[in-house]
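TICKET: design request
STATUS: open
ATTACHED STRUCTURE:
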């Protein structure tokens, strides 16, 4: 009876990876030693409830072929081990509108190396906002839409370079990226010390009293203004002008002409 070797528990898991490696080799796909990363933490809005920001892959892909198009692949972690690089962007299996229900990954943000110059030019913004388009979210004619992500994730991403429809180079997959989630109102802790609730109430009361005082002041000023200009003003009678009568020395009364 031949001796049977016990199966390694990870053998079944490694089989899809070996198949993908063979497929990549058949296509001449080159894996680049680069892992996509989130942008600098100093950038505002690095991760939101529907977007995240990546560093651009500067000085990563080779310049040959020069007409290659670089795509960003966004996938759920479960799709990474069996991801098929030969599926073209814009196909139903890679459509954003079907992600993640019937399409476990989609491809977006296609561009050429001209938009990823190396080295970085002074003043260049070298980040990519994933999930920033809203108009094409439900537009089936835009399967490569960079639409808002449908949930907190997590998600994993990689960059891939295509020469026509043939993949020629790719990066490693990123670490899982989890988006922010909105907290229920009851879970938001009160800020400040334990007296914050009473301070808020006191501030509200003072604001109301100030508004009442201001309204009373405005009404008083309006009353005084109407009393001053409402007809009680007196006007002085214009002084009579006296004109003195005088006779000229060279004009005298002439007697009536006689017939």
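STATUS: resolved
RESOLUTION: sequence designed for all positions
ATTACHED SEQUENCE:
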């Amino acid at each position: 009876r031949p001796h049977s070797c016990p199966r390694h528990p990870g053998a079944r898991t490694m089989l899809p990876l070996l198949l993908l490696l063979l497929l990549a080799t058949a296509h001449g796909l080159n894996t680049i030693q680069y892992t996509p990363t989130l942008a600098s933490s100093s950038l505002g809005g690095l991760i939101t409830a529907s977007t995240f920001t990546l560093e651009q892959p500067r000085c990563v892909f080779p310049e040959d072929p020069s007409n290659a198009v670089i795509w960003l692949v966004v996938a759920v972690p479960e799709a990474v081990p069996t991801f098929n690089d030969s599926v073209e962007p814009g196909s139903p299996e890679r459509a954003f509108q079907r992600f993640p229900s019937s399409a476990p990954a989609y491809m977006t943000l296609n561009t050429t190396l001209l938009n990823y110059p190396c080295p970085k030019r002074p003043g260049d913004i070298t980040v990519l906002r994933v999930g920033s388009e809203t108009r094409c979210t439900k537009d089936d004619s835009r399967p490569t839409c960079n639409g808002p992500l449908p949930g907190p994730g997590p998600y994993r991403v990689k960059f891939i370079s295509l020469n026509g429809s043939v993949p020629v180079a790719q990066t490693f997959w990123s670490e899982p990226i989890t988006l922010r989630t909105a907290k229920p109102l009851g879970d938001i802790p009160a800020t400040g010390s334990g007296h914050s609730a009473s301070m808020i109430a006191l501030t509200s009361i003072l604001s109301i009293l100030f508004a009442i005082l201001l309204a009373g002041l405005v009404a008083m000023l309006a009353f005084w203004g109407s009393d001053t200009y409402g007809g009680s003003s007196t006007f002085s009678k214009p002084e009579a002008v006296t004109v003195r009568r005088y006779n000229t020395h060279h004009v005298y009364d002439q007697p009536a002409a006689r017939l």
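CLOSING REMARK: The two ends are 180 Å apart (CA to CA). The mean pLDDT is 79.
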